Amino acid sequence: MRRRTWKGESFEECGARELKEETDLDIEKIEFLTVTNKVFKESPKPAHYVTIFLRAALSDPLQDLPNLEPDKCSGLGWYDWDNLPKPLFWPLEEMVQSGFNPFPSQTD
């Protein structure tokens, strides 16, 4: 989700709102994990990403995962952290390559 927080909105509130808008999923137990600040000056399309990483639980684990934007997204799915589909969003790829694990209880 590439959006901005609303004035006075926390990262957690923004994440819950954006997820609801784009997937209709409700979440709880939202936790801030980390933030990255990356400038891609040498890229064919230079960009600057400030990426907020959050972790949350589904309010109802039986919620469907609908694709509300089929014109922008071919599909959604749940994946194991060590088996993510490629290509990944740049900041997420860098986090994976750095060894970051948002699920430390699921280590080998």
UniProtKB/TrEMBL annotation:
GO terms assigned for molecular function: 8-oxo-7,8-dihydrodeoxyguanosine triphosphate pyrophosphatase activity
PROSITE patterns named in the record: NUDIX
Phylogenetic lineage: Eukaryota, Viridiplantae, Streptophyta, Embryophyta, Tracheophyta
Swiss-Prot/TrEMBL GO biological process terms: dGTP catabolic process
Pfam families with a match to the protein in the record: NUDIX (PF00293)
Protein name listed in UniProt: Nudix hydrolase domain-containing protein
InterPro entries documented for this protein: NUDIX_hydrolase-like_dom_sf, NUDIX_hydrolase_dom
Gene Ontology CC, one term: cytosol
Domain Nudix hydrolase: 1-102
Domain of life, per lineage: Eukaryota
Species for this entry: Acer yangbiense
